[in-house]
Every structure is written in C-alpha cells, then in structure tokens.
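Quick question about two entries, pasted in order.
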Amino acid sequence: MKSDDNKYKLIGARIKEARESAEISQKRLAELLGFESGTAISLIESGNRKVSVEDLETIAEVLHRDINFFLGKSEDLEDLDFKLVFRKDKELSQLKPKDRDKILDFIEFVKSQNK
C-alpha cells in the first residue's frame, strides 16, 4: 500500500499547486466541494486524506485543469516545449504560475481553433 500513499501525496501536491496558481484558498475550495472547513483540503493536499473520483473531477473543473494533471500523467510534448521555454527564458521564468497557466491555456485555445 506504500505506492498508494505516494499516489495520494502526488495528487495532493498537484491540487495544492493548481489551487495556489488559481489563487483559491483551502477554505474556498472546501466550500465548493461541500466540505465544512479547509482542513479537509489541507489533509488531501498533504496526502493524509484520500480524494474521491467525484471530488477530483470537481477540483479539476474548479481549478481549470485536466484531471490527468492531478494524476501525474504525461503531457503533450508540445506543452513540454513551451514549459521548457518558460524555464530557459529569464523574463518568462519570472512570471507567476497563474500567468504561465494563462499563456498555456491560450496556446491550447489556439491549437483547438486550428483543428
């Protein structure tokens, strides 16, 4: 069961990353999920509480992320290329995560328009 613990820690870390990028508090996310307090989100983010599939779907929707992001699934190579640019370019690397996410969202939008 050790690997399951690692999975929930990864999912929790990804939830925290996306939540902070979206500038949503633990308390607000808890409210959107129907939890009574932000403590539930804190426990999920630390990997000490398992998250249900339904809650993970809601989290993905609220935080505007693909559910695969939370599961640690690989991303498109095209997206990885842009992320590499963010790391290599000094000015781009200084952007806040939420601003980088907006740029990546725009790229996805443009790609979808070209299909």
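Here is the second entry:
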Amino acid sequence: MTVTVKIPTPLRRLTGQKDKVLAEATDIAGVVEALEGQYPGMKARLCDENGALRHFVNIYLNGEDVRYLSGIETPVGDGDELSIVPAVAGGR
C-alpha cells in the first residue's frame, strides 16, 4: 500500500527538506521501516529502543491518533495519509 507521509519541519533535514514523502507498507511499523530505508535516522526519531513510538511523537492516520487505534500495528491502506506531529511543550 502506498501511503503519503507528512513530514514535520524538525525532521525535514532527513528528507532533503521534503514536506511529504511516499512509503510502501501495510501498517505503521512498516511505514517507519520504509522511512528508515529511504531516510536513515528517521526510525530513531520516531521509535524508542524497543520499537515503540516515542512519547513525544504523535502519528495520525487520516486524522486519527494511532495511539487510540492499534498503535504501531495500525494497518494502513493505499492512499492513506500519515501525519507525524512532534509534541509541543513549554510556555506559560
């Protein structure tokens, strides 16, 4: 399945400044692996050493937070859109 992945500004240095990339996969874990294959270093920014999504990274599949679906095992379909959104903290 071909998935469009929206890349946030902090990760664009890994993608050559591309704000959207394509990945072939059947689930979120596969998308992460596909991104790592195309853009080395991406997986370390998205997943911890156990392969789980980092707490400060939010991933949305067609607008739905994957943490409320099946997490990294959430299936993806052809034409789906995945958004990577780093958590924002700070301020008063």
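Reply: The beta strands are 2-6, 20-24, 57-61, 64-65, 81-86. Residues 36 and 72 are 15 Å apart (CA to CA). Hope that helps.
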